[in-house]
Design a protein that fits this description.
Oligomer: single chain
Helix content: 40-55%
Radius of gyration: 20 Å
Number of strands: 10
Bound molecules: adenosine monophosphate, zinc ion, fe (iii) ion
Order of helices and strands: EHEHEEEHHHHEHEHHEHEEHH
Number of helices: 12
Largest sheet: 6 strands, mixed
Length: about 290
């Protein structure tokens, strides 16, 4: 049986694995297809594509956008998008810069609390365009300023703790549009973690393509609940482990094995959208438009 993991992070966001390490684990576990979904980034896609190609694994390019709707944070997965798409890269760069400024602000608050963390140590450790709180936490541990990641979050970084800084996020509706204009499918990530089901109809209205029913932190009951939601709204079904390597304890890759038939359904939607876009630009229409253009 063929199976896929469509939710994976590398060190191009807050995972600890390189694309090559992640691919190596996937190969040992027998995966046919993977999607790379680093937070607000497509930086790792090229290396992941090369590693997967060498391992004979199909790669779906992707990202996981941090978004909000009515002040509620939610994550939107983008699949099959063009990692060279200019608008996508411009918008991601904007939110990556927001993330970098937020790191500076968190470190400055830590310094005010007499925690002598150096911002450059966080950036050096993160070594990517899309740093986040886990990198601050790891830098605190590395500098011997806290015992472990839990202490870093509990004392300083959790929401409403003294070094927590809110993050500017893109609107969820804009996120869906951003993914679409880059040729991708937009999927609501781990709805069971956010428990914000009331926003699903608005996302569907905005063109949401799918919903992540299978996720490491979804119980069987939650997966079934979101399979029903998918059926009700005509959404595609996805699933993945949300593996971050060793960043949150044990690597999660292998905990979700999505049957490949779900990947085929995603692929046929992308293909049919491409062929519709293709027919809109028929030579006949182009010729007609060119006659209108002086
Ligand atoms: P950020 O995007 O910078 O706000 O960071 C979010 C990341 O921090 C996510 O990957 C979370 O899983 C992780 N995170 C949030 N709270 C905690 C916590 N209490 N302990 C460990 N990791 C956490
Ligand atoms: Zn993460
Ligand atoms: Fe997420
Ligand atoms: Fe994730």
């Amino acid at each position: 049986m063929k199976f896929a993991d469509l939710h994976l992070h590398t060190h191009f966001s807050d995972g600890t694995f390189s694309p090559e390490e992640l691919t190596g684990h996937a190969q040992r576990l027998g995966f046919t297809a993977l999607a790379l979904t680093d937070h607000d980034s497509v930086e790792g896609c090229a290396r992941m594509a090369a590693a997967c190609h060498a391992a004979g694994i199909e790669l779906i390019t992707g990202t996981e956008l941090t978004a909000e709707y009515n002040d509620i944070e939610l994550h939107i997965l983008g699949y099959f998008l063009d990692p060279q798409n200019q608008k996508l890269l411009t918008e991601l760069a904007r939110f990556q810069s927001v993330r970098q400024d937020r790191i500076r602000e968190m470190v400055s608050r830590l310094n005010q609390l007499n925690v002598p963390l150096e911002v450059e140590s966080v950036f050096a450790l993160a070594n990517c365009k899309s740093p986040g709180r886990p990198h601050v936490a790891r830098a605190l541990v590395k500098a011997g300023l806290v015992k472990n990641l839990d202490e870093a979050f509990e004392r300083f970084l959790k929401k409403n703790r003294p070094a927590w800084v809110p993050k500017a996020k893109m609107s969820a509706l804009e996120g869906v549009e951003l993914i679409h204009q880059a040729g991708g499918l937009a999927v609501m990530a781990h709805p069971g973690l956010n428990r914000t089901d009331e926003i699903i109809p608005a996302l569907v209205e905005a063109g949401l393509d799918g919903i992540e029913c299978f996720h490491t932190k979804h119980s069987v009951a939650l997966a079934e609940r979101y399979l029903e939601v998918a059926k009700k709204f005509g959404l595609l079904v996805t699933g993945g482990s949300d593996c971050h390597g060793f960043s949150k304890g044990k690597p999660l890759i292998g905990t979700v094995k999505l049957p490949y038939e779900y990947v085929e359904k995603l692929k046929s939607k992308v293909e049919s959208r491409k062929s519709i876009a293709g027919t809109a630009a028929t030579p006949a229409l182009d010729a007609h438009l060119s006659t209108l253009d002086p």
